């Protein structure tokens, strides 16, 4: 039988769901975050915000997994196809080098990726119109349609939620998300450096 937690209360089952993102259950003793200046009402508001962010992450993860299953591709493949759609929409020519840079993968990995996508009839390679040394990579119309009609259409619904906000609310949310991104962005933490580097 498990030991009773601090305070002598008997253990209780943890309810799964977005509550898993609350600070109280992730850092009950303040080991990670000093919250001595945060009132209990502010803590409740912050936990509600963390639950909302967790719910968004969960929904995006489920959408991503469903799209990968539907398209029968992996995460990197889907990121490459999204990049090709954006290039096409903006009138840009996608090259293997641009794809490698966007995905942050090596030239060899990019070649394998493009070979795999070409075998699956997801992309075409053709001579670059102005650079004899480069290739132009394009998504096939059928794959573009499949991506747009499924995950693309679902992701676009985020615009509806953003459009419901007032300009001041959008500014606040944008500032918050940018600030949070900056707080969690990786620097030169040794534990985050890949072992092959």
Describe it:
By secondary structure, this protein is mainly alpha-helical. It is built from 8 helices and 2 strands. The chain has a two-stranded antiparallel sheet with strand order 1-2. Strand 1 and strand 2 form a beta hairpin. The two termini are 45 Å apart. The mean pLDDT is 88.
Roughly how many Å is the radius of gyration?
Answer: 23 Å
Structural class of the helix and strand makeup? mainly alpha
Largest sheet: 2 strands, antiparallel
Count the E strands.
2
Share of helix, binned: 55-70%
Distance between the termini: 45 Å
Please indicate the percent range of residues in DSSP E strands (runs of 2 or more). Answer: 5-15%
Figure out the total of helices: 8
What global shape is seen? elongated
Poorly predicted runs: none
Write the layout of secondary structure elements.
Layout: H1 23-26, H2 40-71, H3 75-90, H4 96-103, H5 107-119, E1 123-127, E2 135-139, H6 141-156, H7 158-163, H8 167-184
Antiparallel strand pairs: 1-2
Helix pairs in contact: 2-6, 4-5
Could you name the key traits of this structure?
mainly alpha; elongated
Write a concise synopsis of the structure shown.
The chain is mainly alpha-helical.
